[in-house]
Design a protein that fits this description.
alpha/beta; 680 residues; oxidoreductase; binds flavin mononucleotide; binds iron/sulfur cluster; 3 domains; TMADH/DMDH/HD_second_a-b; FMN; FAD/NAD(P)-binding domain; TIM Barrel; five-stranded parallel β-sheet; Rossmann fold; oxidoreductase activity; 23 helices; iron-sulfur
């Protein structure tokens, strides 16, 4: 860990280090890692333990688990479980790791009701009133009887007992994000009961009240009880939801030891940089704070210490909640305490972490490539082992992968020469950051540039490297990180055959590289998206914002299909539909001729004509420097890095750069060399 002993925490940030009593326990400071999923959960417990431990080591005063099912009637496919006593021993090491650094450990107990289909346990899901479960599963949740409610309370009490046995200091009742039974009961849309648990708000809030009272009784001063609550509205209410949420908060105000304020829509709570801004939930935290004497923790894509301190100073928050800031920089509090503010690795708001959690793979982070690799590759976000033999390393290409490779290799003690053909570093991130809402993605470059200033890296801008120069380079290792370019032949993820006449000069064809480099574009534009991530939708919106008439076409059933995993699909779909002239879903590109393209329905094969003057192909990508890619020096080990090896997400490029920096290799043997969990 590199530290500057002369730096110190600025005075206006020092209140962030005040201890905060939470019921019977005391948080050592105000940095609160709120519950967040990891994609690791019960299949990757060692990884989970190591990752949470590193956050405690980095100064987060409270470190919570993700949501944790407490009974088989809530059988989330991947999340943690505390179903019976056998689970206690599995979770205890997580608590011990957190306690080892003086932090408090929190657990988010949850019962997901009709939010889950119980595909594994095959037990009919539970709901206040019979209702099809969330999603497209052909499963209907059954209405709970009074006996079921009594059982639920017992299961919950047992889970709290077990959580305390594990050593947890804070036990959650999860009623945020509209996805658990207590909020399903609160919602008059989901709760149609006519007994004492339905009807009036005080009837609908009865279950939540009982769970809170039960929790206090069982905890009996041995752990604090936290309530995570979506303060903006109740689930699925078109009108009156805001007022009812506030009334419920007023009614429950003093029951928990801590209010953890979120929004009811997870997509809005975890909004990406395109749809959210720092501190965007302040209003709701204030509304809760005004109704309770208990401490309040709130979130809102905090990235800057100043905003965090401001919300404490102005009385909105007692504890600063963060999921993504703690993922991007598990040592953020330590860096603030040490006055190393410029070393904080700020979250960019890309939501790749949310995508990996949704896809049930260990958490991936664009900014922090060590996330999810703490145990299996033994990567630490702040420590790299010194190299046994110091080498001279040439990195060709100063985009995200090249910058990360240079940074890590230099940190290990190698002497790095970073050669970049352009007159500035950053590669394709410089172009991406022009897209609406992606300005913060520049942080990937900016943070690495700051780090490089303190490391032994020679930077050579305007250096065009060819095979000849490579062969003559006086170095011990070469990494080629020259990125990728967009294909011009129309081959993409769903459409494998090139459409007829693309590139035959019948109609101008542009790639995203050309559009973003400012190539003139006029007339009616068709954006063809067979990439499905952000580029197609973002380019369509960018061009529409310049007054062009834009059609958007994709062989997928929705706009920007992959962004369903990053919480952005709904928003992008809506914007593209509203701002583009036409949206053609489920259509591939059949052929191109002057002033028109033939679109082919992916199911029926039927063709339709779209008139346009230019087509923007957002399809596949290929490594940029094919000739360099084939350079293999006999004497100098040479490896492709990032997009130059395999074009993918920004996160994948940074990760591959990190791998290279650690091993001076990206070959398959090195990449495959990681430990596996006993039960993964
Ligand atoms: C990868 C990821 C997984 C999450 N999983 C959970 C979860 O299991 N339970 C929960 O209450 N919130 C979960 N959240 C929501 C966060 O706790 C938080 O409310 C939200 O991300 C906003 O905070 P932030 O802007 O600091 O990220 C998750 C967030 C992320 C980024
Ligand atoms: S993946 Fe993106 S949004 Fe998530 S923590 Fe990392 S930088 Fe932030």
């Amino acid at each position: 860990m590199r530290t500057d002993p002369t730096a110190e925490c600025p005075a206006d940030l020092q209140p962030l280090f005040d201890p905060v009593p939470i019921g019977p326990v005391i948080a050592p400071n105000r940095f609160y890692q709120v519950p967040h999923g990891t994609g690791m959960a019960r299949a990757h417990l060692k990884s989970l333990e190591r990752m949470r431990t590193i956050k405690a080591e980095g100064g987060w005063g409270v470190v919570c688990t993700e949501q944790c099912d407490f009974h088989p009637t809530s059988n989330h496919l991947r999340e943690l479980q505390l179903w019976d006593d056998t689970d206690v021993g599995k979770l205890r090491p997580v608590v011990e790791g957190i306690h080892a650094h003086g932090s408090l450990a929190g657990i988010e107990l949850s019962h997901n009701g009709s939010h889950v289909a119980n595909l594994d346990s095959r037990i009919p899901p539970l709901a206040p009133s019979s209702l099809p479960v969330r999603g497209v599963y052909p499963v209907t949740a059954r209405e709970m009887t009074r006996a079921d409610i009594a059982d639920l309370r017992q299961w919950h009490k047992s889970a709290i007992r077990r959580a305390i046995e594990c050593g947890f200091d804070i036990v959650y009742i999860y009623a945020g994000h509209g996805q658990t039974l207590p909020v399903h009961f609160l919602s008059p849309v989901m709760n149609q009961r006519t007994d004492e648990y339905g009807g009036s708000l005080s009837n609908r809030s009865r279950l939540l009240r009982e769970l809170l009272e039960d929790a206090r009784e069982v905890a009996d001063g041995r752990a604090a009880i936290a309530l995570r609550f979506g303060a903006d509205t109740l689930p699925h209410m078109q009108t009156g939801g805001q007022q009812e949420a506030m009334d419920a908060i007023t009614e429950l105000a003093e029951l928990p030891d801590l209010w953890d304020v979120t929004l009811t829509d997870f997509g809005k709570d975890g909004a990406s940089s395109r749809f959210g801004s720092e501190g965007h939930e302040e209003h709701w935290a204030r509304m809760v704070k005004a109704r309770t004497t208990k401490p309040v923790v709130g979130v809102g894509w905090f990235t800057s210490p100043e905003t965090m301190a401001a919300q404490v100073r102005n009385g909105t928050l007692d504890l600063v909640g963060a999921a993504r800031a703690s993922i991007a920089d598990p040592h953020l509090p330590r860096k603030i305490r040490e006055g190393a503010l410029s070393r904080i690795r700020p979250c960019i708001g890309c939501n790749i972490c949310i995508a990996s959690d949704a896809l049930a793979v260990p958490l991936t982070c664009t900014q922090n490539p060590t996330m999810g690799e703490e145990w299996r590759r033994q990567w630490h976000p702040e420590r790299t082992p010194p190299a046994d033999t110091k080498k001279r390393v040439l990195i060709v290409g100063g985009g995200p992968a090249g910058l990360e490779a240079s940074r890590v290799a230099a940190e290990r003690g190698h002497h790095v020469i970073l050669a970049e053909a352009q007159d500035r570093l950053g590669g394709h991130v410089n172009a991406l950051a022009q897209l609406p809402g992606l300005e913060t993605w520049r942080r990937v470059v900016d943070w690495r540039l700051r780090e490089l200033q303190t490391l032994p890296v020679e930077i050579a801008l305007g250096s065009v490297i060819d095979s000849h120069t490579l062969a003559q380079a006086d170095v011990d290792a070469i990494g080629i990180a020259t990125g990728a370019r967009w294909r011009r032949d129309g081959v993409g993820h769903l459409q494998r055959n090139p459409p007829a006449n693309v590139g035959a000069d019948r109609m101008p064809v542009l790639t995203p590289d050309q559009v973003l480099s400012g190539e003139p574009i006029s007339g009616r534009v068709l954006v063809y998206d067979d990439d499905h991530y952000f580029m197609g939708a973002n380019l369509a919106l960018l061009l529409a914002s310049k007054g062009l008439s834009v059609d958007y076409m994709t062989p997928a059933p929705v706009v920007a299909a992959y962004t369903q995993f990053t919480n952005e699909q709904q928003g992008l779909h809506q914007e593209v539909t509203e701002r583009c002239s036409s949206v053609h879903l489920l259509h591939g590109l059949a052929s191109v001729s002057a002033s028109r393209v033939q679109a082919r329905d992916v199911y029926t094969g039927q063709e339709a004509t779209i008139t346009c003057d230019v087509i923007v192909l957002v399809t596949g990508r290929i490594p940029a420097e094919a000739t360099l890619a084939h350079h293999v020096s006999e004497n100098t080990p040479t490896h492709l890095i990032g997009d130059a090896l395999s074009p993918g997400t920004l996160a994948a490029a940074v990760h591959n750069g990190h791998l290279y920096g650690r091993h001076l290799s990206t070959n398959t043997a090195v990449a495959s060399n990681y430990r596996r969990e006993p039960h993964a």
